[in-house]
């Protein structure tokens, strides 16, 4: 299966059946993000303890790419240290804007290299990551991709 086919299959799967949806009591950070260009909106709930991201949940609505990206992100960052999550954020950004495979181990997230082919979708794919980064930085402002 090509990267492109894998990309489409995973976007459809996670877009239709997102993982880690909800608002857990344990959340230590809440952050709102939106992408007015497309109408994507999400609230991210991060449970962090001793510098480790134990869990990330989200609630939101938007296009399949934004929902799938948030869903795959929650799986990818679970159990990682905050520093490792920041590296993944930088790697993800590099992947979708330059199409270059980053030095950081991205796992399944590598399929997002396909976003390169749809420049208008880059903000959809990165919304959840910008929002997570702001949450970890304790930035109280809502995230807007504009
Ligand atoms: Zn979108």
Describe the structure concisely.
With 146 residues, the chain is α+β, with helices and mostly antiparallel strands. It is built from four helices and four strands; from the N terminus they run αβββαααβ.
Question: Would you kindly provide a written description of the structure presented here, covering whatever features stand out?
Answer:
Helix 1 crosses helix 2 (64-77). The longest helix is centred in the middle third of the chain and has 17 residues, at 82-98. Strand 1 (29-35) and strand 2 form a beta hairpin. The chain is built from four helices and four strands. With 146 residues, the chain is α+β, with helices and mostly antiparallel strands. 36% of the residues are buried. The chain has a four-stranded mixed beta sheet with strand order 3-2-1-4, with helices on one face. The protein has helices at 3-16, 64-77, 82-98, 122-136, and strands at 29-35, 40-49, 52-61, 143-144. 41% of the residues lie in helices and 20% in strands. Zinc ion (ZN) is lined by residues 35, 38, 40, 62-63, 65-66, 124.
Portion in beta strands? 15-25%
Rg, nearest Å:
14 Å
What is the helix fraction of residues, given as a range? 40-55%
Overall pLDDT: 93
What spatial order of strands do you see in the largest sheet?
3-2-1-4
Q: Major sheet: size, sense and barrel closure?
A: 4 strands, mixed
Query: Strand-and-helix sequence, N→C?
Result: HEEEHHHE
